[in-house]
TrEMBL record, chains A, B:
The gene coding this protein: tilS
Lineage: Bacteria, Pseudomonadati, Bacteroidota, Flavobacteriia, Flavobacteriales
Superkingdom of origin organism: Bacteria
Location(s), subcellular: Cytoplasm
Domain note: The N-terminal region contains the highly conserved SGGXDS motif, predicted to be a P-loop motif involved in ATP binding.
Keyword set, alphabetical order: ATP-binding, Cytoplasm, Ligase, Nucleotide-binding, tRNA processing
Lysidine-tRNA(Ile) synthetase C-terminal domain residues: 362-434
Protein's UniProt name: tRNA(Ile)-lysidine synthase
Gene Ontology CC: cytoplasm
InterPro entries: Lysidine-tRNA-synth_C (IPR012796), Rossmann-like_a/b/a_fold (IPR014729), TilS/TtcA_N (IPR011063), tRNA_Ile_lys_synt (IPR012094), tRNA_Ile_lys_synt_N (IPR012795)
Length: 437, 437
């Protein structure tokens, strides 16, 4: 066993030799063993310890232990103290989640400021099985069953192939000192039940449980890798990205089997929870939508449109004074007003208006139901909703449409069409050019 | 709860009404409840009980109980007695597997002889979770985690959505009588540990365990459905079927990601166990092969050839006497010998040979290393191995090649090429026509 541990880094992680490493050390047996292994392998590493202040003096004792360990191993150590309970409360997450977020955020900061190439953690095979069982018991998607990844995002977990008892035996044999592991303190109740009441029974049935489990999990991961491959294949046929978000082609979706599951795969990272409502959109009427905390999915004819919630583009109004020559409007651009001697070339982003017809300040606002205007170059008036229909605007396009008003009258559907009533006449001497860039 | 049970069949399985049904009844609470529900729903059903003779008098008691139950419900009952232990030993399977195989085989026989349209079993949600955990503990592929299918192969399991305790409560409320469930007797040790020691702890952590688990398992099944879809998409590009088996196109395989996993998906039902050896074939030399109990996978240039083991085509020899006019050879066809006055048109499946040159009985055998012949229409002799090479024979083609010999000399590479030495000369009067059909 010792031999396996001793050669582990050089045999399986040769790229760690010569790299600048940050080692997460809680003070528990796993991270202590990994620290010693790193020292034996003569790696260039510093240690980092999070004090989550969850167990008073004990937490401080852990911190002191780790600082002393770093001293005896002659490596640098970083420590940081967190008000974990407060963070959890403020962010509405569990204490466990809070600790994890704080830890990884701090590691990431340390890594960029001190230029560490990899972060090492001491997760082992039992952690993997315990996490699997926690997720299984709580209920989870397939991703929750596939386990901690060995190497991902520059985080390396060299002990994932070893069990807790193997690590402990090795530590005893080498007479290492350690503190009882204080990590996962917040889900201790659940994790301890699993660790002490469930896994031992499983091991009575199959003494090779951890090995079998590692293979089971690998097979599962491999299957899910194929799902990813399949999605990569479908993606360019199904999804188009534009400036407002993503457009999903329902007609193509309907040609492939298991549409719902494909929709789930495409949308799973956008925070939706009401999946039946999402699936119902496939056959819903135009305009139906489903919301997540961050995104919105809208049925629009033969498409599904996925856009971010954009609260900035609410019902805000902006005013344009005559003497202002530049007004910035968030999410739209900048307005320029200038007096010109004669009309130049018109374009969707520029209009010419006789000053005498305008009531200042002009108002810039979103369009609303019932709005109508007199499209330039046409006879009579038209509802904006009909104009959008004729021009085949998508829902997000409609939503991102701003109008320029003089009093109650529409002067310009910005970026799209001017109004006849405000057309320049031969007799007009004072002409304003209004442009958006 | 009662309401749910009472309406279950009509609401969720309307197609069962009016169909002729076979209900598997062990005498345990689950199958007893299902029997009563079928009766309440006025279904047209008979009962079937397997006596596996695994617990002596108790087994006979179960049988008597089921016969009495059928009597009281006024439905037909079939019973069958099995020597399960013997079957398990003879077939080298576990007692549990033996019981399952015997049960489903008998149900299938009953269904075809008595024309039952569906077989109903009383599997419930706990069975599903227990089976999941058994497979998890033993180690399994993803399929072992997805659970019992509700409706498959005309077997319907209406109670899969209910827990054991819900079923028991309902049975107590209705004052039904039942026998303690004798099924799964052989894996009782393992199943009981899971049932009494593991699942209760999981339920302490999450009282809604069975519901969460059902969703987890459904998500997993949906992901695996996508793997199937992906494979269906790749299959026609990757695999070609011919008369010897299947040909896998390695060049195409190398173009897609996760080749090994795809190879696994393609080959998983052919009994291979040495998967690393299988994967190594991708880059192996022509001729390398991996065996399963039933199949053989051979590297052949840019292909992998999958064929059944065919022991019939071993080293057997067949003899052809002059006076026989028809000889059947298993796996090849029938030989006809006839005397003709003059040569007709030659073809790969017919040769003309002067009788005087033949030593009877002629021998029909597989080719072997070192064989050579004098190809008709060419000068000199040639090794059979070189002939195969020039003709671009695949490995299975070579293996399925038979030769006809006169003494030590090859007369005919059957179906392919005759030998010069046995060509008919002008002076020959007695000509034999030998054909294979």
């Amino acid at each position: 066993m010792e031999k396996t541990f001793k050669n582990l880094i050089k045999a399986d992680y040769p790229y760690l030799c010569g790299s600048k490493l940050l080692l997460a050390v809680s003070g528990g047996v796993d991270s202590v063993v990994l620290a010693h292994l790193c020292k034996l392998a003569k790696l260039d590493f510093s240690m980092a310890h999070c004090n989550f202040n969850l167990r008073g003096d004990e937490s401080d004792g852990d911190e002191k232990f780790v600082v002393d360990l770093a001293d005896s191993l002659e490596v640098d150590v970083y420590t940081e103290s967190f008000d974990t309970l407060n963070f959890a409360e403020n962010h509405g997450v569990s204490v466990q989640m809070a600790a994890r977020d704080l830890r990884y955020e701090w590691f990431s900061e340390l890594s960029s400021s001190a230029q560490f190439e990899y972060t090492l953690t001491a997760h082992h095979a039992n952690d993997n099985l315990e996490t699997f069982l926690i997720n299984l018991i709580r209920g989870t998607g397939p991703e929750g069953l596939t386990g901690i990844k060995n190497e991902r995002d520059n985080i390396v977990r060299p002990l994932l192939g070893f069990s807790r008892s193997e690590i402990e035996s090795f530590a005893r044999e080498k007479k290492y000192k350690w503190r009882e592991d204080s990590s996962n303190a917040s889900d201790k109740y659940m994790r301890n039940k699993i660790r002490h009441q469930i896994i031992p029974v499983m091991e009575e049935i199959n003494p090779q449980l951890l090995d079998s489990f590692a293979k089971t999990q690998q097979h599962l991961q491999e299957s899910l890798d194929l799902v990813e491959d399949y999605m990569s294949l479908l993606y360019p046929k199904l999804v188009e990205k534009d400036k407002y978000g993503y457009t999903l082609d329902i007609e193509f979706l309907k040609k492939v089997p298991n549409q719902k599951q494909i929709l789930y795969q495409l949308l799973k990272s956008f925070g939706f929870t009401e999946w039946d409502d999402v699936y119902d959109l496939i056959d819903a009427q135009t305009g139906k939508m489903v919301l997540s905390d961050t995104h919105r999915l809208i049925k629009d004819r033969k498409k599904l449109l996925l856009t971010e919630h954009n609260e900035k583009i609410g019902n805000k109004e902006y005013h344009l004074e005559k003497e202002e020559d530049l007004v910035m409007i968030p999410g739209m651009g900048s307005f320029h007003i200038s007096e010109v001697e004669k009309m130049g070339q018109t374009s969707p982003s520029c209009i010419y208006v006789p000053e005498r017809k305008l009531k200042f300040p002009l108002v810039i606002r979103k369009w609303k139901k019932g709005d109508f205007f007199y499209p330039f170059g046409m006879k009579g008036k038209k509802k904006l909703s009909d104009f959008f229909k004729d021009e085949k605007f998508s829902l997000p396009e409609k939503e991102h449409t701003w109008i320029l008003c003089s009093g109650d009258e529409i002067v310009w559907i910005i970026n799209h069409r001017a109004d006849n009533r405000f057309a320049v006449e031969k007799s007009d001497s004072k002409i304003l050019k209004i442009c958006i860039t």
